[in-house]
Amino acid sequence: MIIKNGLVFTENNTFVPMTVHTDSGLITKLQAPEASVSAADVFDAAGCFVLPGLTDIHFHGCDGYDFCDGTKEAFDAIGSFAFSHGVTTICPATMTLPEEKLADICESAAHYKKAQSGSSGQLRADLIGIHMEGPFINAHKKGAQNDAHLMTPSAALLRRLQKKAEGLIRLISLAPELAGAISCIEECRKEFRFSIAHTEADYDTARTAFLAGADHVTHLFNAMPPFTHRAPGVIGAAFDTPACFAELICDGVHIAPSAVRAAFRLFGAERMILISDSMEAAGKPDGHYHLGGLTVFVSGNRAVLADGTLAGSVTPLYDCMRTAVSMGIPLPDAVRAATINPCRSIGMDALYGSIAAGKKAHFLILNQEDLSITAVIKDEHCLRVPHPAEMPADNMRF
């Protein structure tokens, strides 16, 4: 396939007029725009931005399904919905569940990954990892997690689950103040990436965790102490750790626009990661849904437990990226935070996350005027998306 006439988002984080060539699912070369292109399969991206496909490394479900359902039906539906919303690679998150259930999910995901690797022509996001959000979290900052299944951090448990997952677990979220957490990070730092999450850790404890090997913060600002001038906490410790990435749920509910702008200024665009943290209600009408065994009430763009606690989001990553732009984040910075940064944070950037020769041929084509999705392309297979003005109005959430 050849993609021509578009403004291509390059590895220099700029938009440049380029022609992109792909073959057998890989990008083969980028070159200056040509006066004429002769090929059987050409996509004309005139008037469009050509982005890498987005990567969501923290979400639980969508389209009525949860990753923790652990079924092929659920994985197919989640991958299809993600793809139709510009996300071509996914690293879904588990919840706080018993070891037996987590093991089943990991085993099912590993089987699905192997089957997916042998298929072609399916317009679904690639499953590239698992994010374990729980069970190693603080009960006082559990959010929408089920505290009946909380556990002490354990290297042995992680290795048992990784064996079931056949190496698919990429990221572990945990509270560093828990007994055994720091030693678990130190022992397993070469096997897993660790993220601070659902925590009451102070600055010193968080800094110790980063020095031990953690290099990530799960949904910055949420489920952690605030950043203050005398007690900078996890956020201050992350700022003082140059290699640390920070996630943001930029859905217009979890974080105020000023805080989004402040986070990008504080950490720099090279360290920010946009996530959706979406649950099964994404793409569905208002109503009652479930997350980690708990009932979630959805109205508009808010998902909450019965006591009002936020329970993930109902906003796909593409919409989070566009919301970030509407809040004043420059488009190149928002794109980085939804493409190459998440891939780097889980060690998958050699193949995914940017448009360069040798990488996977995953693209999101956006209309330059309003950033609406024009097409999603993966492995020379293209899903064209009607412009919003051409779509019938309904009560579905997209």
Spans of at least 5 consecutive residues with low confidence: none
**Assembly state here?**
single chain
Mean pLDDT: 95
Structural class: alpha/beta
Largest sheet: 8 strands, mixed
Proportion of beta-strand residues: 15-25%
| Count of separate DSSP helical elements | 10
The overall strand count is 22
So what's the overall shape? globular
Helical residue percent band = 25-40%
Distance, first to last CA: 29 Å
- The radius of gyration over CA amounts to 20 Å
Mind explaining what this structure looks like?
With 398 residues, this protein is of the alpha/beta class. Helices cover 26% and strands 25% of the residues. The protein is built from ten helices and 22 strands. It has helices at residues 72-84, 99-117, 155-165, 181-188, 203-212, 233-239, 257-267, 317-326, 331-338, 340-345, and strands at residues 2-9, 15-23, 26-31, 42-44, 48-52, 54-56, 61-62, 65-66, 87-90, 126-127, 130-133, 169-174, 193-196, 216-217, 245-249, 272-275, 287-291, 294-299, 302-304, 362-367, 373-378, 381-384. Strands 1, 2, 3, 4, 5, 20, 21 and 22 form an eight-stranded mixed sheet that branches. The chain has a three-stranded parallel sheet with strand order 6-9-10. The chain has a three-stranded parallel sheet with strand order 11-12-13, with helices on one face. Helix 8 (317-326) runs antiparallel to helix 9 (331-338). The longest helix is centred in the first third of the chain and has 19 residues, at 99-117. It is globular and about 65 Å long. The two termini are 29 Å apart. 52% of the residues are buried. The model has no long low-confidence stretch (mean pLDDT 95).
